[in-house]
Fold each of these.
Amino acid sequence: MSREKLRSLGLDLPLLPTTSVGSFPKPDELQQARTRWARGLISRADLEALERRATEFWIRTQEELGIDVLVDGEQYRGDMVTYFAENMRGFEIGGLVRSYGNRYYRKPIIVSEVRWERPITVSWWRFAQSLTSRPVKGMLTGPYTVMDWSFNEYYPDRRATCLALAREIRKEVEALIEAGARIIQIDEPALSVRPQELPLAREALQVVTEGLPAYFISHACYGAFEKIYPQMLALPVDNFDLEMSNSNLDLLEHFKRSPFTKDLSFGVVDVHSHVIEDVETVVARIRQGLEVVPAEALWIDPDCGLKTRTVEEAIAKLRVIVEAVRRVRASLA
Amino acid sequence: MNLTLTNTGSYPRIGDVPELQILRQTLARFDRQEATEADIRRAEDEMVRRAIAEQIEAGLDLVTDGQIRWYDPISHIAGKLRGTKINGLLRYFDTNFYFRQPVLVDRLIRECPILVEEYRYACSVSSRPVKPVLTGPYTLAVFSLVEWKEYRDLERRVEDYAMALAEEVADLAAAGADLIQVDEPAIVLEDAVFDLFAAGIRALAQVKGAARLALYISFGDVSPIYERLQELPVDVLGLDFTYSPQLVDRIAVEGSVKALGLGLIDGRNTKLESEAEVATALERLLPAIRSDVAYLNPSTGLEFLPRDRAFRKLQHLVRIGLRFKQ
C-alpha cells in the first residue's frame, strides 16, 4: 500500500530504507558560534554561513555512509518547538523553565492568533536537497506537540489551540510540497501525554495532511505508547517512526497482539547511550522488527534525533545501522 | 474564616538575569570539576533565600523553600533512602517536566532525616512561617521500579515508604513545623488503589504530633474520590481545580469538613485568571468549608512557569485573596 504511494510519488526505495529521525549534533565551531551570536558578537549572516557548512557536512556524511532517505540535520534549530514559535506569529518566547535536572528551555507563550506568515523550513530543505540526489525529508513539529509544549494565553482551550496550529502548520507542509518535498515527517513526541486526547491529535493531523500528495511520517518517542496502541494507528500518516531500543523493544509485544498496520520506522540504536551498538545487536533488532512488520513496510533508523551524541558517536551509530541493514537485506534477497 | 495565602511547593530556581542563574552555573561547573559540593550548597542557599523573599514580597502568609534543592519530586526523597538507586527519565504526569525514576534494590531504610535541615535553613531566612513539603508514600511507591522481589507487591512498597516518611514527618514536627504538606498526585492516575494510598496517609497521620497534616493532590480530577478524601485523618485537603470543572459546584453543595487548600490559580499556565471568576468561586466555596481556616494557593508548584510569570501569579493570587481576608 505505502510502497505504491511511494512509487506514485516517484520514489523507488530499497527494502528496509535507512534514515534518521531529524537532528544531528552541531559541530563545535557552530556550537560556539551560536553562543557568540546570542551575545551579539557575530552577525546572523556569519552564523548562517556556519549552519550551511554544517548542513552540507551532514548531507555528505549521510551519502558517504549510504543512508537512503536523508535529513538536513536541523543545524539551524535550537529546539523543536521554540524554533517554530520564533518563526510564526502569535508567540512570545518566555523565560527559562526547567525540563529536568539542570536543563532549562524557553517555553513559548501563545499570546494572540497563531499565524504562518512565510515558509519556515523550506529554504533549508531546498538547500539540503540541492546537495544530493537522494530524497531529503521535510521536517516539522506537529500541532499537538507545539500546543502541549507552549503556554496558552489566547485560545479558550487545548482543542482550539491545537486546531488553530494545525491550520497554520498545514501551510508549511503545502510550501514544502510546492518546493518538491515528497516525504514529510511531522514530529509528535507529545502524542502519548494524555491518551484521552488522541482523537484531537488525530483530527489535527488530518487538518495538516488531508489531500496533500506526500508520504507522511510521524515521529514519537519516550512515552507510554501502550496506552494509545492500537488506537494510534488511526492517525492519518503512512509511517510511524518510533523509539524502540531505549525501551528494550517493549512495543513489539503490543504489535504482536494487535497488528501494526502502517509502515514502521524502527529505532534500532539508543540515542541516549554513548555505547555504540554492535552490528549483531542491530541485526537481531531488525529481525525482531521483521517478525511484526513485513519487510516491504519496515524502515530502519535511530530511536530519536542524534543531537544528544557527539559527531563521532552519531556517525558510528549510523554506520552500524547501514551495515546491519546491508546484512539483513542480503539474507532477504 | 481565616484565609491563608500560600505557595503549593516549588518555585523557579532560575531567572533571566545572571544573578538568578548561579545555581545552574555552579552545577555545570561541578560537572566540569570546577566547583565543590559546598559551592552547590551556597548557590542553593542563595536561591532559597531569593525564592522565599519573592514569595514574601508577593504577599504570601505562608511560604515554602521553593524545593530549590530538589532534583525532582520523586528522586529527591526516594534517592536519599537506603535501598534505592536512581534510574532514567520519565515524564512527570502530563507536564513538560521529567523526573528520575527510583529503582528499589533492597529494603527501604531511612538512615537520616531528608528534609529537616532544609526546613531549618528556610525558617532561618524567612520572616514568615515556612511549610515543609514532601512527596507521599503512595506516589513514591507507584513511580518506583522494582528489582528487589519483596517489593513486587505495591502494598509492601507503600508500607515501607510510609514507614520511612513517618519518621520524617515526626522529625519535621519536632523541628517546629506547624503545617506539613504531603503531595500525593499519583492518586489521580487511572489505576490508583485508594485503600493503599489511604493506609500510607494514615501511617503519617499517626506520628504528626502537634503538627497539622495537609494532603495535596494535583494533575487530575479529584471529584470521583472527593467523599473518600474527606474521611482521611488529615487536617487540610489541597485540591487542583484546573482539572475539575464541576468541583466548585460539588463542594458548594456537599461542603467540606476539612480545611481546604484551594488550587484555583493555575500554576501551569502563564495566563492570569479572571479575578471575577476566582472571586465568585471563593464566594461559593468559603461558606461551605466547615473549618475556621482555608488556604488559597496555586494548583501546583510554580516551577512550571518562568520566574517573572511565577511571581506575577503570586501577586495575582494575593490581590484576589486579600479581598477575602478578615
Amino acid sequence: MRETRGFKVYRAVVLAVLGLFVLVPLYVMVTSSLKPLRDVQGAFTWWPSNLTLDPFVDMWKTVPLARYFVNSTIVSVVATVCSVAIAILAAFAVSRFRFRGRTVFTTTVLSTQMFPGVLFLLPLFLIFVNINNSTGLQLVGTRLGLIITYLTFSLPFSIWMLAGYFDSIPRDLDEAALVDGCGPMGALVRVVLPAARPGVIAVAIYSFMTAWGEVLFASVMTTESNRTLSVGLRQYSTQTNIYWNQIMAAALIVSIPVVIGFLLAQRHFVAGVTAGAVK
Amino acid sequence: MSVATEQVPAEAVPGVRAAKKRGPDHRPGLSRKLPYLLLAPAVLLELLIHIIPMLVGIWMSFVKLTKFFIANWSAAPWAGLNNYRVAVDIHNSVGEGLLKSFGVTVAFSLITVILSWCLGMAAAVALQPPFKGRSAIRTLFLVPYALPAYAGILTWNFMLQRDTGAVNHVLVDNLGLMSDRPFWLLGGNALTSLITVALWRLWPFAFLTLMAGLQSIPRDVYEAASVDGAGSVRQWRNITLPSLRPVNLVLVLVLFLWTFSDFNTPYVLFGTAQPPAGDLITFHIYNASFLTWNFGSGAAMSVLLLIFLMIVTGAYLIVTGRRSRRA
C-alpha cells in the first residue's frame, strides 16, 4: 500500500484513538496501585498526589495473596505441562496417521470448544462429587480437580494448532528419520518436535493464560485452601471497605507473569495462533 | 496394494515401506494401534470433562433436580419436558427472564463482534506498511488480550465506579459532557459498560488475526492496482476485503461464539447481582441455577443455549460454504 498523506493521517488517528483506549486502563491500574486508600476512595485524579508503595505491601496481609499465588502457579504450570504433552501426542496422531475415527475425533474435540463452560459446570461438579464418594479421590476443593479441568480447556485449540504446525513440517523429514532407524515416536521427538518448537511454545502460553485467567470453575470448585487468584482478588472488597489501591496492585502483580511470558514469546504466539486461525 | 505386501514384516524393508506409504506408519501392527494410543489421553480427558458432563447435563434437564435432591442427585424424580416448558413459557417469570437475557446477549454479542472487527481491521490496515515503532505498538495493542481476564475487568470495574471512577471523571469533570454522574454498573448503562469492557479485551484478537491475514496477501497485487490508479480505499475494498474472506469467516464465528458464551465479563464486572440491562445468558443461567437451586431448570436453559449455538454455527458454516478445516 502506498503511503499517501491521507494514509498517514488515518494511521495517526487510528493509533492515537486505539492507543488511548488500550493505555488508559493500564495507566489507571498502575497509578491507582500507588495511591493511599483515601485517595482511591475520593474523586479520581490522573496524577497520584501522594505516591506510596504501601498497597504492594499491604495486599499480602489483607488477603492471603501469597497462598493464592502459589495455588494459581501450581495449577497453571501442571495443567500447562500436561496439556501440551497430551496435545502433542494427539496432534501427531492427527497429522501423521490416517485411521478410522480421525474425523469424528477432530470434529468432536473442536466442537467442545464452542460449548459455554456454564453448560458442564454443574454436571462436572456432581460427577466429581460422585467420584469422591465412590473412590475417595477428592476433586472438588483440591488443586487436582482444577488441574484436570483446566488442562482440557486449552486442549482442543492446542491439538488443532499443533496439528496445523505438524502438517507444515515436510514428511520427508520424518521419513528420513524412519529410514535411519527411528521409530515413529523417535521421529516425533527428534524431528517433528524441534521443527515445531514455535508452535509448542505458543500452545504452552495459550494453555497457561487460559488456566491463569479462569474465573467460572475457580469460583465454584475451590475452597479456602486451594483458592486461585481469580477468586482471591475479589476478597479485597469487604463489607466496610473496597481496597481499590490494593486490588489494582494485586491485579498488576498477577498480570506480570503472563504479560512477560506473552511478550517474550509474542512472535511464536502470534505465528501460532494465526497459523491455526488463518489456514 | 496386495494383502501379501501388507503382511511382510516392516523391518525387512523399512526404506521401501516408508517411501511407499509416506509417513512414519511403516510397521503395520504397531501403526494400527499407535494413533489410538496417542489419542487416548486426550480422548479420556475430553470424555471426563466435556462429553460425559454434557450428557449428564442433558439428563439433568429432564429431572426435577431441586435442592432437596442435590445430595443424592441420581434419585431425582423424572420431570419429562417440564423444565423446558417452564424455560420457554414467556408468560411466567422464568421464561420471561430467559427471553430478556437472550435479547440482551444477542445485542451484546452482535455489537461487540462488529466493533471488535472494525477496530481490529482499522489497526491492522494502519500497521500494515512498516514504520518506526510498529512492533512496539503492535505489542502494546496485544496487552489487553494477554492480561488475565479478571485483572483487566477489575480495572474497568474501578474506572466505572460512579463517584471514584475515571470514566465519570473524564465525562463530567474533564469534558463536561454530563452534569449528573451516571451509574455505569447499575441500571440501563450496564450493557454499554459490558460492551466497552468486552471490546477492550477482544479487539486485539481480531487485530492479531486480521494482521496475519493481511500479511498473506501478495504485495504486488497492491502495486498493480496502484499503477492502475486505484486509491487506498478502493484497494481495500477490491483487494483486501475479498482476500481476507476466509480469515473473516473463521474470525467472525469465533468472536460470536466467545461473546455469546462470555461469563467472565459480567461476573467480574457486576458481582453476583446483575443489572437486568447487562444480564448475559450464561450469567443468567448460572444465577438461575444457584440462586433458586433449581439445577434441572438451569440445565434445560443450558441445553436450549447449546442447541441455539449449534444451529447458528451450522447455518453459518453452510451459508459460508466452509466446514471446519479438518472435518
Amino acid sequence: MSTVIARTVTRTVVPIILVTAVALLLQGHNLPGGGFIGGVLTVTAFALIYIIYGLNYLEEELLHQNREVLIESIQHGIVGNYQLAFGLGLAVAAVAGLVPLLFGGNFLLQDYWVLHHLPVYGELHVASALAFDLGVYFVVVGALLTILAVVGTE
Amino acid sequence: MQPTPDPAASAVLAVVFLPFVAAALVPLVYRALGERTAYYAAAVALACFGLVASQYGTHGTVSFPWIPSLGVSVSFYVDGLSLLVGFLASGVGVLILTYSGGYMHGEPGQPKYYAALLAFMGSMLGVAFAADLIALFVFWELTSLSSFILIGHYQRQKSSQYAARKSMLITVSGGLFMLVGFLLLHAVTGEFSIVYMLENPELVQEELRQAGLFLPVLGLIGVGAAAKSAQVPLHIWLPNAMEAPTPVSAFLHSATMVKAGVYLLGRFRPVLVSHEWELAFAILGLTTMTVAAILAVGATDIKELLAYSTASHLGLIVAGFGFVSDLGGETGAFHIINHATFKAALFLVAGIIAHEAGTRKIENLGGLSEDLPITAGITAVAALGMAGVPPFNGFYSKELLFEAAWEAAAHAGGLAWLYPAVAVFGSVFTFLYSIRFLMLFFGEKPTGLHKVHSPPKAMLAPPLLLGILAALVSLGGVLGTFGFHFEPFDHFVTEVWASTVAPDADLHGGFSYHVPTHLTPAAAMSAVTIVLGAAAYPFYGRLHRGVNRLTDVNLLRANWYYDSTVFGANDFSDTVAETVQNGLLRTYATWALATVAALTLAGYAASGVTLPEFALAEGMTLPIVLVLLIAIVGAVAVSIAPSHISGVLTLSILGFMVAVFYVLASAPDLALTQLVVETLTLVIFLLVLDRLPAFYGNAGRGKMIRDGALSAVVGATVFVTVLVSTAATPADGIAEEFVNRAVPEGGGGNIVNVILVDFRAFDTMGEISVVAMAALSVLTLVAMRERGETQ
C-alpha cells in the first residue's frame, strides 16, 4: 500500500493533522472543536502512519518502544500504551470533576478566568473545562487506537 | 382485651438478623469446632428462641428508619401469629440443629449445610415478623432459595438436583404470583404496610372490590400460599423434597417453610375473608387434605408417607382458615401448633429408623419397638395425634375443623354438605396411614431386618421433647374436660386466633379445648372416622395397591404434567436457541433487528402514536436538496455494489454528504465530527476488508428478498422514530436557554462544547467511560477468541 507519493504526503500531512487536532482541542470552548473531535483527528493521523508504514514502524522507529506483550494474540506491546492512555484520560476527567469539591463546589463544576494584557495573545480565556476536555481527548485517542491496533493486527 | 406492651425494637431486629450473621460466621466456626458446629448453630437458634420468648405478650409494630429522606423504613410486626411462627422456626430449629449433630456425623458439606439452615431460619423469622409487603416477599423468596440449597444438599445426585429444581420452580414462581398480588394491593391502597391493612380490613376490602381487584388479589395470594404450603395440585414438590437430609425434611417440610403459606393465609385472613374466600380455601384445603391422605396410603417410603401426610395436614389448616366462621381461625391456629409438634417428632423418628435400620421402605420394617422402646413411645403419641384419635392432640383441632365444616354446611345448605362429608372421608385415610406408620413398631420383624441399634442421645432428645410437648397438649384436653385449663397455652392460642380474625371480632371468651362430653355433630363425625378407619385397616394392603394402580395413570398424576411442561420447555428452548443463535452473524442480526423493529412499531401502535405532519419545504434550500439527493444515490449504490470495497467507498459518500448537510444547516461542530469519524471508519473498514474475501456469498433469492424486506422495515422504523421523537420538542426550545447562559456561565462561545463539558459534563463522563469500555471489550473479545476458549 505504500508508494513514494503516499509516504511523502504522509510525512507532510501527519504533523499538520496533529497540530490541527491540538488546535481543535484547545479552541474547543469558543470555536468548533473539543476533546472528542481532537481525539478522533489525532487517531486519523496515527491511522495514516499505520496504513502507510505499518504498526511496527510506528512502534519501533517513531516511538522507540519495545515492550513486552501482555496478551499473546495481540502482537504489539504498544496496545498497552493505548490502554494506559484511556485509563489516564478517565482519571484526568474524574480528577477534573473532583477538584471543585475542594473549593466547596459540586462535582464537575466548571469555572473560567479571563487573562488580560498577555503578550502576543492579548486577552485569553482559560476555562477549567479544558482539563475535563483533555480527559475526553485521551480517552478517545486511547480507545480508538486500541481498537484500530487490535482490529488492524487481525 | 387489655392493652399489651409494645415489642422491644432491638430484640425483634436481633431475632431476624442474628441467624444471618451467624450463618456468615459458620465457615470460620467450622474451622474451629468441626462437627460440633451443630451445637453452635443450635445455640444461635436457642438465642433466637429466647428473644422471641422475650417478646411474648407484646403486640405492635417496631420500625427502624432506613432511608429517612425517602421515608423508607424497616418495620416488623409482632402479634400472636408472628410469635407462633417465630416460636416454631426458632424452637424447632434448636431441636433440629441438635439432632443434626448426631445425624450429620461424617456427612460431606457440613459448613454449607449449617449456614443454609441458619439462613433459612432467619428468612423464616423474617417472614413471620415482616410488616411490609415487600420485606415479606423478600424473606419469602429467601426461604425458597435456602431450601433449594438444603434440598439439593447431595448435589451430585440426579434425584437431589431434580427435587431442588422442582421445589425452587414451584415455590419461587408461586412467590411471584404473590408479589403481583401485593403490587395490586399496593396499587389500590397506596400502602405497603401490612399493619395498615390489618387495622383497616373492611376499608381495604371495600377498596379492592370497588377497583374490581378483590378476586385477582385473592387468587394471586392464594397461589403463593398454595405453592408454598404444597396444596393440590402444587403439592408435587413436597415428596421430592424428601431427598434432603431428614433433619431438613423435619424442619422445612413439617414445621416451618410449608407453614409459610399457611401463615400467609392467616395473615391476610382478616383482610380478605369473605364468601369467595371460604369457597376458594375450604375447597382447596379439603381437596388437598383428601388427595394427599390417599396418596400417603399409596406411599412405600416412610418419608414419602410423612411428606404426603404433611401436605394433607396443611390442607386441613388451609381449610380451617378457609371457613369464615370464628371456628375456622381457631382450627387453623390450633392445628398449626399440633401439626408442628407431632409431625416434626415423626420426621425425626423416621430419621432414626432410616439411620439405625438402614432402610426407609415400609414393607421392610416392623416390630421396631423391641429395639427402640423410647422411639416407639414417641411415635405412639405423635401418630395417634396425627390420626386424630382422642385424647391425643390432633383430635381437638380436627374436631374444630369438623365443627367448622358442619356449621358452614348447616349455614349454607345444599352442596355445602360436601364439606363435612369430604372432611370425614379424608380423615379416614389420615387415620389409616397414621396407624400404618405406628405399626412399624409392632407386629413381627420382617426377615432381613437385623438388630437395630439405639440412636445417640443427640438424636433421641429432640423427638422426645416434641413428643412430650404433644403429650402435654393432649393432657391439656383431658384436664380441660374436668375444668382445669393450661391458662398460658390457651391464652397463647387465643392470641394467634385473634390475629386471624378482624380486630373487633368476638372470641367467645378465648380459646379452650376438651374431650367432648356429649354427642355433638363433630364428635359423631370423629366417631365415624375412627370406626371406618378401623374397619378399613385390615384391607390396607389392598388400598395401598389400588392407590398405586391409580397413580400409574399418567393423566391423573400432577407430576406428569409438571415433567411434561418442564422437559417440553427444555426441548422448546433448545430448538429456539438453535434457530435464533446458529452461529452465523447474519442470523443474529436478522433476529435482533426484526425483534427491535417489531417491538418498536408495536409499541407505537399500542400507544396510539400518530405521525406528526411534516413539511418537506421547510428550511429546504437548493444546495441541501442536492446534497441529500447525492446521499440517496450513494445509499442505492451501496446496496448494488459488486464488492466489499466499493460498498464501503460508496457508503462513505453517504457519510460525507451528511457532513456537508450539517455544514449547510450551520452545525460546524457536527460536521467536523462527522467528517473525521467518517474518515476513520473508512480506514478501519478498509483495514478489515483487506483480509476478507472480495465477493459476497451467493445467497438465495428467498434470503435476498427476506433481507430486503427486513431492511425496509428497519428503515421505516427508524424514520418513524425520528419523526415521532422530534415532534415532541417543546415549543419554547431549550436551545434558547443554553444560548443565553453559555457565555456568562460557561465562559465559552461554542455552545455545543459548553453543553458537553459544563452543563452536561456528567453525561460526557458516562460517555467516555462507555468508549473506554468498548475498547476494553474489543481487546477482551479478540484475546479470548485467540486463547481458544471454546469449551
